[in-house]
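If your schedule permits, I should be very grateful for your opinion on a structural question. Thank you for your consideration; the sequence and its tokens are set out here:

===
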Amino acid sequence: MSELEEIEKKIDADIVYNQHYVPRCYLRAWLGGNGKLECYDKSNTRTFYPSVENVANEHYFYTAASLTKEQMTFLYDMWIADTQDPLKSLLMGWIKCFSLKDALMAFCKQVNWNAAANWYEKNTEEKFYSIIEGKIPIWREKLESFDSTYWSDEDNEIEFIFWIVLQFIRTPLMQDKYIEAAKKAGGELEKLSLNTQNVYRLIFATRFAHNIIMSDDMKIFPFVNKTGIQFITSDQPVVNVCASYKPLGELSYYDLELYYPISPEIAVLISPKDCYTKWRSIELNQGQVNAYNQVIEKMSKRFIFRKP
């Protein structure tokens, strides 16, 4: 085997085939003693017991096709043009990242280095997520023991809020909604929206997280569950609680409550309501735990997870 063939073999081996939209390190909090999850499949009402490796993934889910200049302009006009620096520069950073990816992919195809071109197309977004997902065990630990020193660090808080919003938007359910909205719009808007969800996810998460962080009203804090009834999670692990009972068109600024169970005993809420205080934990009763579990069930796409 030549040196080039050896390099191409390593590149091919580095491409993740089953790409998780709910991280394995996140789902491990719901593992039973046998190393399996309990998973309820809403599509066929069947319960099964997979490993974290074999659920909440799709083949090449984050494949990122090359975007046209018109599509890049569309993303800018829709999501960036009305912002100001420093947010505008952050959002433009995502456009530049994907433009560079497209240029590198085109060059690799031009010189017939197909293994590298395939890596850029299939693995760019997946690799980014794998980096930030590595913080989940740390966040869980700092919430379970509630390390106030850690959470008073602005950088840690910002990174965690960005992750929550990113997990909210990066799922098949939200991707389907994006595609559905594009098809409903039809015409040129539908054409421009195709294949842009990879960049859109990151732009949306950055912009949404920025709005939360800069808001005087939004509070982030943990829910503590000592009831013996576990928090469950799903293939849509971050949900807007208000959207579970209000139509999309009726949702306002104060109808944003992002709920994120991070283990069977700990969850996080981001809410603008005056009754909450930033980083002041709340211990829930059985009725409240059941209510949040019902929201997770309702807002899931297909799979609901619990600890067996």
Remarks:
- The chain is about 50% helix and 15% strand.
